[in-house]
Amino acid sequence: MGLTYKTKLLMKTLEQLKELESKCLDGRDFNRLAKFIPYNMIKDFGMEPNEEYNNEERWNSTVVEFTRENVLKQLEEDVRFGFEKALNQRGISASLMFECVMMWNYILEEGLEDWDEDDYGFYGLPLFKATAVKYGWDNPIGEDSGRERKYDSQY
Question: Alpha-carbon distance 17 to 34, whole Å?
């Protein structure tokens, strides 16, 4: 008699993320996270809705369900944008996307959550590549690691 085991992938809950702090100088990571947070929790994250959305009904009408699938959609967009900025040597934008991708990987807890922040390579390319490869997304640097000198703006 054979047994089949199903592995359920669990990610962090919003409740577990209340102590999380933005690592982006412009709050870009939390702006992305905010779209998943219901109105009754937004202040727990140290955020204030702008005037236009400062009522529960209006805010909650825009909230995206906090599911693995929806987080992966946002992560894929951020990885794609991160690659674009990194390959165009846009240092600030690439570093902000690096922090966003780090946050999503931390939330998902699927093997990349402990990425060494010092392993930035050139413009975050190693992290963008590792994330893209893990999930089967477009990887514009192919077999490169993202640490090759050709990606260095000084090269």
Answer: 12
